[in-house]
Design goal:
The protein has five helices and eight strands, in the order E-E-E-H-E-H-E-H-E-E-H-E-H. By secondary structure, it is of the alpha/beta class. The protein has one domain (about 5-215): Alpha/Beta hydrolase fold, catalytic domain (Rossmann fold), CATH 3.40.50.1820. Helix 4 links the parallel strand 7 (about 150-155) and strand 8. The longest helix is centred in the last third of the chain and has 18 residues, at about 195-215. It is globular and about 40 Å long.
């Protein structure tokens, strides 16, 4: 899991990178929670997502948004963070030019940034959004959503009540050509403290289902 430093618009971007198992291995970018709420690339959910892709042979990158850890710059209300994510995806693609698939996965604020990135990168094949903050940000930009993916949410999430996410999911499900999965986990909070096994189980099952249907 080598440390990497990427050149970003606000200075260096600190990341951790696991190469793929073949030249055509798919790639995955992992996005962490809100920097102003203590989010960083070593958040347990972000690390869990990183390992789930890594175990399946993906070339996988997670990184700190600007102003977090050793990444330079300052928090930029999502605008600069989206630029950081695009820079990181560019780096991943440059190092894996023959990648068979492109995936984006994010937790909380990272899910919001990930969905915005998805809209700007139509080559993306799939996404994982954990605890998407649908009541904090306007997700109406997902029109149309270019890829199928999974929304994973806690039924006991009091920060982002499930109906807020279900409203987004219902809208996306009206689109043709994509399939949106929505897994609601009983007893799980916004932070997944006692439900990390559920994150592992549900994301694993979803990835395995997709990779079986569309081998990478």
């Amino acid at each position: 899991m080598p440390e990497v430093i990427l050149p970003g618009a606000a200075g260096r971007i600190e990341g951790r990178y696991s190469p793929g198992k073949s030249e055509t291995a798919p790639i995955a970018l992992i996005l962490h929670p809100h920097p102003k709420a203590g989010g960083h690339m070593n958040n347990p959910v972000a690390v869990q997502l990183y390992h789930l892709f890594m175990k399946r042979g993906f070339a996988t990158l997670r990184f700190n948004f600007r102003g977090v850890g050793r990444s330079q710059g300052e928090f930029d209300s999502g605008i600069g963070e989206l630029a950081d994510a695009a820079t990181a995806l560019d780096w991943l693609q440059a190092h894996n030019p023959q990648a068979s698939q492109t995936w984006v996965a994010g937790y909380q604020f990272g899910a919001y940034i990930g969905m915005q990135l998805l809209m700007r990168r139509p080559e993306t094949d799939g996404f994982i959004s954990v605890s998407a903050p649908a009541n904090m940000y306007d997700f109406s930009f997902l029109a149309p959503c270019p890829a199928s993916g999974l929304f994973l949410h806690g039924a006991a999430d009091t920060i982002v009540p499930p109906p807020e996410v279900e409203r987004v999911v219902a809208k996306l499900r009206t689109q043709k050509g994509i399939v949106i999965d929505y897994d609601l986990i009983e007893g799980a909070s916004h932070f997944w403290e006692n439900n990390m096994a559920d994150v592992e189980g549900h994301v694993s099952a979803y990835l395995d289902k997709r990779l079986e249907a569309e081998p990478a």
